[in-house]
Automatic annotation (TrEMBL), chains A, B:
Cross-referenced Gene3D superfamilies: Winged helix-like DNA-binding domain superfamily/Winged helix DNA-binding domain
Keyword Coiled coil: yes
Species of origin: Nonomuraea maritima
One of the record's GO molecular function terms: DNA binding
Coiled coil: 123-150
InterPro entries, per database record: Metal_resp_DNA-bind_regulator, Tscrpt_reg_PadR_N, WH-like_DNA-bd_sf, WH_DNA-bd_sf
Organism lineage: Bacteria, Bacillati, Actinomycetota, Actinomycetes, Streptosporangiales
Sorted UniProt keywords: Coiled coil, DNA-binding
UniProt KW DNA-binding keyword: yes
Chain ranges of the Transcription regulator PadR N-terminal domain: 15-90
Name of the protein in its database record: DNA-binding transcriptional regulator, PadR family
Length: 215, 215
DNA sequence: GGACTTATACTCGCGTACGAGTATTCGTAG
DNA sequence: CTACGAATACTCGTACGCGAGTATAAGTCC
């Protein structure tokens, strides 16, 4: 398998896509990206900006096209995207759109170690999550409404998607909570008992060792 | 703000939760986690295992309790979870369950840079994604059915959640595709034009600079 | 019994992420 | 006109992630 993305950080993709519009210096890229709210759509850490730009240059995806200087401020290097950079950005975008990745969310991870807490506490935690989730959904919905007025649909899709996913998550949690509240959840007593004694019966331990289905 | 998780890698949480059951050596932890399929629920890279265990020890969340040796194999250090480790694991789990994080998925990132490709190509890419997604949903559903027979519900929640999220994603993509196919998507021509000329009209550029609502 | 594969049990080192820090300049309120 | 906070424009160091490599031991097929 060939080398995967020469610069793996998604911030690099964001940088490439703004650099396509016109040559920029790093700080300007950051301002533009910030202004467009791209840090809501991507896991961006601004501390990585200069490292990422340097790496993009090293791999020939960006190239320096001189410096400019405003007043007495430090001089800034302007970067332009190369052909390779354009190709990389397009290819990367294609991959992101076409390939559903297997990247478990933190919540999923949380669910998978939930057994370490008792059922009553879990219920409280999930209640809290649902509450926050519902608040966020409301806020997102309002924000989207506001933006719909002034932006073409094309630029709203990622927000629409994020909202849809949050709603789906809220619905799932709500459903689970309903079961927990109604005491319908099967194995509640075993769970409670396990948590009190803090060691799981041997048969369960064996069962939990579910063999992965050969695939 | 105090230091966040002393060992941030989620693999650390997985390690702590198995070490709670009984003292283990690192390789055994890996086997148990693998056997339980935890690497489907968490973003685990096995290459990080020894680093993570060492860091957990350094921060007093695990402690070495001697070594054992089987036959002529290299000696292995046994680690036991400390009280601090137990607390950290519980606290971390609580946080994961109760706090809906803002971590954009790669697909969301993809959507947010989608404008760089033309609408026709995007349609093809999304079709491909939907197809793969539907296949995965089918596979997940079957796997879940199989596991339901032999495992208590408690251990299936994370799979149920993953399935629900995938179904929601598939539904969203399907809906979007329907719009694209029907030509209902507003601004399609502008999009196509922009992609052909490869530079976006100035008014759009301004608009795209959506100010973040203060909050 | 020798040659092959598979499982066991790690080690190493490169590259990178990114928080925290720094130095300068601009706006502005008194 | 000067003091102060905010914005500008970066730099640096450390710790961390993780792929790739390694070496031995145990099955296993002929």
């Amino acid at each position: 398998m060939a080398k995967r993305r020469p610069v793996a950080n998604l911030l690099a993709l964001a940088v490439l896509t703004v650099a396509v519009e016109r040559p920029m210096h790093p700080y300007e890229m950051a301002s533009v990206l910030r202004a467009r709210g791209k840090d809501d759509d991507m896991p961006i850490k601004w501390g990585s900006l200069y490292t990422v730009v340097r790496n993009l240059e090293k791999h020939g995806l960006l190239e320096a096209v001189g410096t400019d200087r405003q007043g007495a401020r430090p001089e800034r290097t302007l970067y332009r995207v190369t052909d390779a950079g354009r190709r990389e950005a397009a290819d990367w975008t294609r991959e992101l759109l076409s390939t559903p990745g297997r990247e478990p969310s933190p919540f999923e991870s949380g669910l998978s170690v939930m057994g370490g807490l008792g059922p009553d506490e879990v219920r409280d935690l999930l209640r809290r999550r649902l509450e926050l989730l519902e608040r966020q959904v409301e806020a997102d919905r309002r924000a989207l409404e506001r933006e719909r007025a002034e932006l073409p649909r094309l630029f709203l899709l990622e927000s629409e998607y994020a909202l849809a996913m949050r709603e789906a998550q809220a619905a799932w949690v709500r459903e689970l909570l309903k079961e927990l509240d109604a005491g319908e959840f099967p194995g509640l007593d075993a769970w409670r008992a396990y948590h009190r004694t803090c060691d799981l019966p041997a048969d369960l331990a064996d069962l939990a060792e579910r063999g992965r289905p050969a695939q």
